[in-house]
Structures are given as structure tokens and as C-alpha cells.
Amino acid sequence: MSRLTLSHRLLLLGLLPSALLAVVLVTYFTFSGIKALDAELRERGLAVVRYLAPISEYGVISGNLESLQNLAQTTVQQPGVKATLIIGRSGRTLAVSGRVSLSSEQLRRMVEGPGLIADNEQWVAFGAPIQRTLADTDVLFDDPAMRAGPEVIGQIFVEFDKKEVASRQDQLLQRGLLIVAAGLSLVCIAALWMAESLTHPVERLVKAVRAMTRGEFEYRVQADSGAEFGELERGFNDMAERIAEVHRTMQERIEEATAQLAFQARHDPLTGLVNRREFETRLEKSIATAQAGGGDSALLYIDLDRFKPVNDTCGHLAGDELLRQISRLFQGRLREEDTLARIGGDEFGVLLNNCSSSRALQVAEDFCAMAAAYRFIWHDKIFTIGASIGLASITRLTRSVAEALTTSDAACYSAKEQGRNRVHTYSSGTPGNRRHPDLSWQERIRTALADDVLAFEAHPLRCLGSQREPLPVVEIRARLDDRSGAPVPMAVLVDAAERYGLSTKIDQRIAAAAIAALGRACRQERPMRCLLPLSASSVRSPELLPTLVELLAAEGIGGSQLGLMISEETAVRHSPETVALCAAARQSGCTVILSDFGGGFASFSHLHSIRPDGVRISRSLTRDVATNRSAQALVRAVEEIARDLAIETIAEGIDDLPTAKLVEELGITYIQGRVAGPVESFADWVEGTVIRGA
């Protein structure tokens, strides 16, 4: 089509509508004629069987097969009749003439009235029942069977050949084609004349357009045509006068959009700070400068303290606003040549160029003081936060960006471990000090995994309502003791494992212990349920679920006894991965529990996409449920939504009987806390609660 000339296109423009109209009209009348022929054939067939059915009555009643055969032969002699068949009430053939094409199944089928029996391309068959006419004597005797209607004593079938109809249809099609050909010839002549008259002015416009595409913005068309083409030529000239201005404007907008995209690629959309990618680029330049002897710099790795309670209590909108305010607070303390970047959720990086260690320490301590003194207000709630900061010097001995970030990150974690809201210094240029004794969390977790010394805690759940089966349900958590033998807080262990990419291995160890206990309980006919909290890394890992399926198959148990718990924060931040994992988990038979539900008030929008089997209500709601009417209303709303979706509800942090009674009245399925049972070793819980049925 693109190779056709303008003249040819105008010709087609004139021909196609006329041709289409002619084809539509001829097709309509042709097929109307064909339908009329088909209708005529059907009416004729129905008329024949209606006529023959009462005529055949006497022959069927009297058993005069000769008269029936004569009737059949006479019918076949009629134009278009292919075969005639008369059968009795028992299905016995009484008379037949011609070659019957109806199948035995069709012949056995009782015909309730005159109608079409079969229809194909070559023949059509009609049938009618042969009924016994009621005489006056029949009415006098008042036979109940006769009151039900005329008695069917046989059936008659007549088949018609479609050759004659097909011939007449062919004639209609031929006439239609002749009409279309004649009409198209006339239209073609008219279209040729019209195309030639329109081609010349259009060709001039085409030349002008080509000149404009070459950048000849001063090119003009000679506006000497009449009517619409004259208007078009003058309009083209007006367009050419403005095209240069439009071109300049578009260039300016493109440059502006390009600059905006470049800014977005280098900055965090929430805070407007430099993002991690751009921060690493600037850090690389500082390292190169230090290696070339151009002066030392310093790197601060900042992790906000007590940020999660803000999200849990007030939602992610509050958390986002807190990050924006903290960003502005920190930015005001820095010089123009310094860089403040958001490199993670609540993690920031500060690059202090041409900065001594003493000044960097002062800046870091100022950040801690500002964070400690800062008060975040959200509606009627006031929050205090802090900042744990890791300080690393950038010297000529600093080898890479990864080394600088790793050492400052590890120093930041040491600051958290030592009590939060403090600065921990680590100098990457000091020989023999590349691994500080305090910065050993990665090694400690790896060693615990290698030596299989991770401990597992049982956090039992209690089922509310006497109508439910008392099946033991427990959440399993990992525990690691510090050097003094005291248990490490769960939050610290989770943060460390996630930071060093070890959380998935820990989750797999927990799953292995849980599935082994499930297998043992099933073999002893003591069924139970285990809930496994999954880290964000496990949710994103494609290896976790296949591992769980293999472990379940090895124990010979189904996945219904295993529940996977995914936090609201993980579901929000990794929504596509969460949806995919939940769908795959359901296919394997495992249940999915959405934990910390309602804490950020974003969970409701994810219920239909994630489709969990249960929700664990955030502690931020259950903590004050006994005294706070708003908390009660929220818990009740969560329970009503869960009941409508036919999913379980779990209330955590239930530590007293009145609160347990209240949440039971609200319709909660399970509770978790001191009322449900003490935290103990998972192995002891299985032995005491499940195996021995204590």
C-alpha cells in the first residue's frame, strides 16, 4: 500500500466504497434469494408430509401395504422428492420408495408433529406422525385413552434432493457477480477522472512536506488552487511559519525532561536526596582522590533507631514523613561539598570530602545529638528516635567502594549493638585492624549455621472458642546467644542476618526443624501446625519454596500443617514477589499468614492480591485494645473483613485474661502471648505439648 502513487490511492478511494456497497447489496439480495429458496423448500416439504400423513392413515390401520407402497412411489415421482418412507407404530417399515438416507436412530425417534428431521448440503428430510382420527363412536364410548388426544399409529418421512435448489442458487450468484462487475466498471471510469483532477495540487503539497522534513522551514507552496485545496495550501504556509518556533519549544522541553529524568535517576524520590547509585559513584571518586594523594575523606553510615514503631503505630505515610524531616535536619548540618544520601529504608550515607577524622567524628556526634533531641509528631502521637552511626575514614589505603561501605555498615551495627544512638569509629586504613572484634556478627551467624548451634523457640498460639478443634499451633523463631550466654534480641538477630544475606539460610533451618517435628507428630498421630516467619530475603528467594516442598515430601506430610508468615512491611515493599510466593505456596498446600496486619493501614489493599489464609493483627492495635475504643473498633473491623474472606485472625501480645476475653468476644480465632503459653525451647514444647499431649 505504501508504494502506491497518489493517483492510485485516489482511485482506490473512489472504487472501494462503491465496490463495497455493490458487494454488500448484491450479497444481501443474493443470500436473501437463497434463504427464500430454502424457505420455499421447507414449506413444500412440510406441506407434503402434512398432506401424506392423513392419507396414509387408512392404509396403516387396515394393513393395506399395497396402497401405502403406491402412495410412496407416487410421492417419489414428484419433482425434487428423493425418497419416501412409511413406518408403523412398532417401527416396522410399511412402505418405502427411493433410497432413504436417514439413520436408524433418526427413524426411531418419535416425531411429535410435522417438521424438519435432518438437513445437510445434499438433501433435506421432513417427517410427520400418522394419527388415528377419532370417530363419533369413539367419543360416545368415552375412552379415557382417547381423551388424551389422537393416537399415533405410524410415521411418514419424505426426503428432498437439493440439486434443483442448488442450481437456482448458482444462478442467483452468477447474476449477482455480473451486476457487481458492471457496476465496478462504471465506478472505475468515474474514479479515474476524479483521481487525475486531484493529483496535481496534492503532489505540490507532497513536495512541500518533503522540503519541511529536510529542515527547509522557509519553503512555501504556491497558493493558486481553488476551493478546499487553496485553503489547504494557505494553511500549509501558516504551518511552515510556526514550525520553527514549535521546533525550538520542543527542543527546550526535551532538554528539560532529559534533565528531570537524569535527576530522578540519581536521587531518591521520597526525600530528594542522592540515591545509593549516585552515592557510590561519588564515593568512588573520593576513594580515587584519596589514593592519588589528594586528601582524606570520611564516610558515615547512619541507621535510624526506633523507626519501626513509627511505621507499626501510624503507618507508612508517617514513616515517609519522618524520613523527609530527618533528611532536611541532617542536610542543614553539612557543607556544600558534602553528600547526604538515602541508601536504604531508614539508612543514610554521608560522604564528607576533604574532612579529617576529628571533624568527621564531631559531625557524626552532632547527628546523634540532633536525632536524639528530635521529636516526631504525627496527629496526637509523639515519637523519639535516635541514630546509630558507623564512621570509616577514606584514605589512600581504602581499596574499593564495597570495602568502605562494608566497614562503615559494620561499624554502624556495632553502634546499635552497644546501645544505639551512638557513634562507632572504624578506620579502614589502620593496618591489622580490618576486622574489629566487635564487627563479628557475620562470622558468628555463619559459625552458628555451620556448627548447627542455632536454638529454636516455641511461641505457642491458643485457639479461642470451644467449637474449634484444639489443634496445637506454634510459631517458631530462631535464637542466638551472645558471648555471655544471654539470648540476643530477635530484632538484632533478624537485622544482622538480613544485613549480611544470611536470613534465608536461617529460615531454611527453622523450616527443617519444624517439618521434622511435624513428621514425628504425624507418625505418632499427634497432629500440629507450625508457623514460620519469613524474612524479606526469603520472600524474594526462588529457592525457599522448592526446599520446603522437598522437606515435606521426605517426611511424607502435606503442606496444610505448615504456615508461612509474611510481614506487612515485606508485603508492601516486595509486593510482586509476595504475590508470586503466596500463589506458589497455595499450590503446594501451605497456608499463608500476613503478620503485623493493620499496623501500617496499608494491609487492606493487599488482601485481595495476596489472598492470605490468615492475618496476625499488629501488636500496635492489640496493645491498647482493652482500654482504647479506637483500637477495639480497628480490631473488630479487621475481624469482620477476615470473616467475610473466610480467613483466620491472630491477636499477638495478649498477656492478661481480660484482654483475652475481650478479643474472644470480638471474634478473634487465635491469641499469642503470655496467656497462650510461655516461650520455651521448641523441642521441649513438641515433647511436652504435642507428643505427650500435656
Describe the protein.
By secondary structure, the chain is an alpha/beta fold. It folds into 3 domains: 6-167, PAS domain (Beta-Lactamase), CATH 3.30.450.20; 276-439, Reverse transcriptase/Diguanylate cyclase domain (Alpha-Beta Plaits, 2-Layer Sandwich), CATH 3.30.70.270; 446-691, TIM Barrel. The chain is 53% helix and 19% strand. It is built from 24 helices and 21 strands. The protein has an 8-stranded mixed barrel, surrounded by 5 helices. A 5-stranded antiparallel sheet has the order 2-1-5-4-3.
Sum up the structure in keywords.
694 residues; alpha/beta; Beta-Lactamase; Alpha-Beta Plaits; TIM Barrel; 3 domains; five-stranded antiparallel β-sheet; flat
CATH class of the largest domain: Alpha Beta
How much is the radius of gyration in Å?
44 Å
Poorly predicted ranges: 428-439
Fraction of residues in H or I helices: 40-55%
Q: Per CATH, which architecture of the largest domain? A: Alpha-Beta Barrel
Report the sheet-strand fraction. 15-25%
